[in-house]
Design a protein that fits this description.
The protein is α+β, with helices and mostly antiparallel strands and 269 residues long. It has one domain: 4-Layer Sandwich (Deoxyribonuclease I, Chain A). Helices cover 26% and strands 25% of the residues. It contains 8 helices and 14 strands. α6 links the parallel β7 and β8. It is globular, with a radius of gyration of 17 Å. It starts with a strand and ends with a strand.
Length: 269
């Protein structure tokens, strides 16, 4: 099972930059996109259908802002392509939002429950726009903990993917000293990730690559990507049996549909 998470920074712009070709080449079972910046009806999704994907969408109320979408290869398509295939990845349950209107109106969380795990596709708020948005971010982090605990009571096998907008350790940011007071690397944000991991959550990429320095986001300014001056902001956090199923994880750094790159994790059956 191959799951990709990708902040596309506008799905319509990403499609023009080769997102469909990327999707076809990757042959992912499940794809979670963040910051789609569009309503579902604003996007021609025919190419996704042609590649065998079904989807669910959680847009922000504000046009051109935020939003997440989750795509999966359906069971019928999997059976058609390979008679030995399992029942596929058709969700048993889909829930848009986390039940808190402040965040749900911004299209931040999309839950899909599959046969033996729950998947949360999340776009965490950014605090880089100033104090007000940083306060929203910290509120979201505080409220996300009990929400996740509730999901885990229903289904202990959980994967939480997406753009967390937090670089956890000094290995996750190109210049930790210069950014110690920057949103995304503040002590309280990093401590929140520590608290999350302390509840039995595993950072899939870091578990498989304990010391590797790689990034998933680069500023458009000053040639940051070409100079690899980036931040690791995108994660797949796993719970329950999903930790034992981890096989490999990698960043698709050479694909340029966004200022982020995709993080792909492969799971054993």
């Amino acid at each position: 099972m191959k799951i990709a998470t990708y902040n596309v920074n506008g799905i319509r712009a990403a499609i023009k930059k080769g997102l469909i070709e990327w999707l076809k080449a990757g042959d992912f079972d499940i794809v979670c996109l963040q910051e789609v910046k569009a309503m579902e009806e604003q996007v021609d999704l025919t190419p996704f259908t042609e590649l065998g994907y079904e989807w669910t969408w959680h847009a922000a109320q504000k046009k051109g802002y935020s939003g997440v979408a989750t795509f999966w290869k359906s069971g019928s398509r999997a059976k058609h392509e390979d008679p030995r295939a399992s029942a596929g990845f058709t969700p048993k349950q889909i829930i848009a939002g986390c039940g808190i209107e402040t965040y749900d109106c911004e299209g931040r969380v999309l839950r899909t429950d599959f046969e033996d795990f729950a998947l949360l596709n999340c776009y965490f708020p950014s605090g880089s726009a100033g104090t007000v948005r940083q306060d929203v971010k910290m509120d979201f982090l505080r409220d996300f903990m009990p929400f996740l605990a509730g999901v885990r009571k229903e289904q202990p096998n959980v994967i939480v993917v997406g753009d967390y907008n937090i670089a956890h350790t000094e290995n996750d940011i190109h210049n930790p000293k210069a950014n110690k007071n920057s949103s995304g690397f503040l002590p309280e944000e990093r401590a929140w990730v520590d608290d999350l991991l302390a509840t039995g959550v595993t950072d899939a990429y870091r578990h498989l690559h304990p010391e590797t320095v790689e990034y998933s986001w680069w500023s458009y300014r000053a040639g940051a990507r070409g100079n690899n001056k980036g931040w690791r902001l995108d994660y797949q956090m796993v719970m329950g049996e999903m930790k034992s199923r981890l096989k490999q994880a990698y960043h698709m750094k050479d694909d340029l549909q966004s200022d982020h790159c995709a993080l792909v994790v492969e799971y054993k059956k």
